[in-house]
């Protein structure tokens, strides 16, 4: 079934919001700019979202809807971890990185926005590790109870640091090193 005119308008507004967040950041985002980019009226936007925070939250939620896909099952913990790290890297280098940078400062000052970004952009990554670890424990590869939240936080921090701080490549060789030298040793030592 084809999307309705209202659904098309909503998609255009949310897409424009994401683009502007990535380009100019939350602080510079205005409803006027979103309306102009989406070719919509401000009245249309305000009928659906009461303000900039609600609009940004809706855009982040829409952006991450496909990100909560099931964790890959390659048959081994190392294979699953590499698939997860590859997915995280690809998401980060495509659009999420610019989006997160556009939101970082605002997250410090806006609790609702921070909660939504943490839940969607960070929470999805955190939750992706749990099935891989559960499968590995069921196969006897690792002890039960590995801390998937810590692993996701460490992996995210290292990918983010590499992309924005050191500027070094996020290539497959780095992902192999990250899995073998950091994540797998943590898995074996990080039980709750």
Automatic annotation (TrEMBL):
Keyword Transcription regulation appears in the UniProt entry: yes
Signal peptide: none
One Pfam family named in its UniProt record: TetR_C_11
DNA-binding region: 30-49
Entry keyword set: DNA-binding, Transcription, Transcription regulation
InterPro entries listed in its UniProt record: DNA-bd_HTH_TetR-type_CS, Homeodomain-like_sf, HTH-type_TetR-like_transc_reg, HTH_TetR, Tet_transcr_reg_TetR-rel_C_sf, TetR_C
GO MF: DNA-binding transcription factor activity; transcription cis-regulatory region binding
Boundaries of every HTH tetR-type domain copy: 7-67
Record protein name field: TetR family transcriptional regulator
